[in-house]
Amino acid sequence: MDPAPPQDPAHNAGQPDFIKEQSSEEFAELRHAHRSFAFPLTIAFVSWYLLYVLLSNYAGDFMGQQVVGNINVALVFGLLQFLSTFAIAWWYARHANAKLDPRASAIKARLEGKS
Amino acid sequence: MTDTLQLAAEGVSEHRPLIISLFGTFVLVTLGVTVWAGKQTKDANDFYAGGRQFSGFQNGLAISGDYMSAASFLGIAGAIALFGYDGFLYSIGFLVAWLVALLLVAEPLRNSGRFTMGDVLAYRMRQRPVRTAAGVSTIVVSIFYLLAQMAGAGVLVSLLLGITSEVGKILIVVLVGVVMILYVSIGGMKGTTWVQMIKAVLLIAGTLLITFLVLLKYDFNISALLGEAAENSGAGGAFLEPGLKYGIDATTKLDFISLGIALVLGTAGLPHILIRFYTVPTSQAARRSVNWAIGIIGGFYLMTIALGFGAAALLERTDIIKSNKAGNTAAPLLAQNIGGGPDSTGGAILLAVISAVAFATILAVVAGLTLASSSSFAHDLYANVIRKGQATQKEELSAARWATVGIGIVAVALGVFARDLNVAGLVALAFAVAASANLPTILYSLFWKRFTTQGALWSIYGGLVSSVFLVLFSPVVSGKESSMFPDVDFQWFPLENPGLVSIPLGFLLGWIGSLVSKEPVNKEKYAELEVRSLTGYGAH
């Protein structure tokens, strides 16, 4: 059986001082690197998606315009949602590899060395 | 019985041995894998998390298997076939939703949780009340989702055996229940993960085949396919534009927004998806698995365009509706048509193949849902609430196996009704409940310092009760011909999807509940959660 589960508050003995760690400069950098990327991007893609939903609802004429043959703006808009999803997933993976993983593993290694 | 159905049933009856052997082979192979995985399942880590040794790609494939349910395969194809472009919203929402999971949830969850969604929801909070809430919410969301899958199973049986054969239908639903109980109780997460992977490959292969044949018929000219779909649908150009289903009046437009929000915010709150992140060793692997899943699922949803519009172009609209009012049989009927029609051997074979794939899809997803609910029952409710953390691992696993049987019985009971509801619409309800009850607490827990136990409870129960309550009084349940109970009318909430009201309510209640809470914030636990969730320190 594993040692005490993480939700057990009694297991803190021998554990690092998380409050001190949380206020350390390295951790602040890691948190900033995650939040400053993930939060605005989340707002951006949710807005972009809602724009698509709202245009579908209230801008029928615009969405119905034909682009090529029977392919209209609505379909192109839908396919762009696919494209932007793939692009954001790729972009986040690149960001995480370069900016998050090295910082996270440095802090983790330091904490493991301590305890 | 309708002509199409009769033809389908006749065409099938000649080839029924083929269908049975295809499906039987899938069941035998997957049960073999399950028994093999069961022999390696020794402790809770194996049963709940599959030993945490799957690779990012394997888990990505398994996530795709868990996610591409009967809703995606039967439901979306049917919704597009009947309502054209409006059905396509499902494909887009189901995919974009993965970005919420990728950017905000997957990695912190992997780093800080252990077996269930409740591990993370209750991390900073008083354990018993929040775990109880998380367990209840997990089970309710999973049962909504199960309802959709079993509706899909019922529909397939109707198509293959004829609507009159009630006994046959019940037998198949019972069979699905029994096999699923075996998968989960013997193989645990390890067995279930392999079943998901096998199913994902089969589903992708089957969909690729039909997509290829449809496109071949139109010389890979998508514009021509769309043109014929529009013409054959009887709606003309409007078929390719938004609004056929949701553009009727101001209420249906609100319903469209409600559905759109539920789809995009639901995924990251689905317990059976969240526990998949525990099957990989690190948060990096969790990230890779989401990226694989986005690629695989995105490719699949692109193909739903060909399936749905192909069905609209090649099948008669009246036949689709006669076979199933909600369009759930459009994909198998399309397979039959593209193989040469109801009288041909090719048509019968393709119908059999696609039906077997659809059964496999349902079986695998039902297993994933059952695993999520029984894990949560055993780990959150039984071990941590009822036994207050004093249960031995053996007792906990035994509780999980019994819960599997219990959930299986519920699933079978649900399989008997709800046949005329679109499967994708039903799953969207599960998404709305998940986004209302689970997502706010997940996000607040991970990212908001001032969140408290009271906030979590208000949010989970408020989101859960409001979403389920609104569904109960919506046209989904009563008052319309397509309702679950068409003969009674107690509906007053006009939207079919409650997300527009219940999701903001879930977020609002979590916020207010925390602000008015008398209990001080547990700063130590928040620091611990934040450091662990971002760095992976101490991850299981």
TrEMBL record, chain A:
Higher taxonomy: Bacteria, Bacillati, Actinomycetota, Actinomycetes, Kitasatosporales
InterPro entries according to UniProt: DUF485
Alphabetic keyword roster: Membrane, Transmembrane, Transmembrane helix
Superkingdom: Bacteria
Transmembrane spans: 37-59, 71-93
Source species of the chain: Streptomyces zagrosensis
Protein name per Swiss-Prot or TrEMBL: Uncharacterized membrane protein (DUF485 family)
Pfam family, one: DUF485
From TrEMBL, chain B:
Compartments in which it is found: Cell membrane
GO terms under biological process: plasma membrane acetate transport
Single GO cellular component term: plasma membrane
Topological relation to the membrane, as annotated: Multi-pass membrane protein
Domain of life of the organism encoding this protein: Bacteria
Pfam families per the UniProt record, alphabetical: SSF
tRNA-binding is among the record's keywords: no
Alphabetical UniProt keywords: Cell membrane, Membrane, Symport, Transmembrane, Transmembrane helix, Transport
Gene Ontology terms, MF aspect: acetate transmembrane transporter activity; symporter activity
Transmembrane segments: 18-38, 59-82, 88-106, 133-161, 167-186, 198-216, 256-278, 290-315, 349-378, 399-418, 424-446, 458-478, 498-516
Residues forming coiled coils: none
Family statement drawn from the similarity comment of this UniProt entry: Belongs to the sodium:solute symporter (SSF) (TC 2.A.21) family.
Name of this chain's protein: Cation/acetate symporter
Source organism of this protein record: Streptomyces zagrosensis
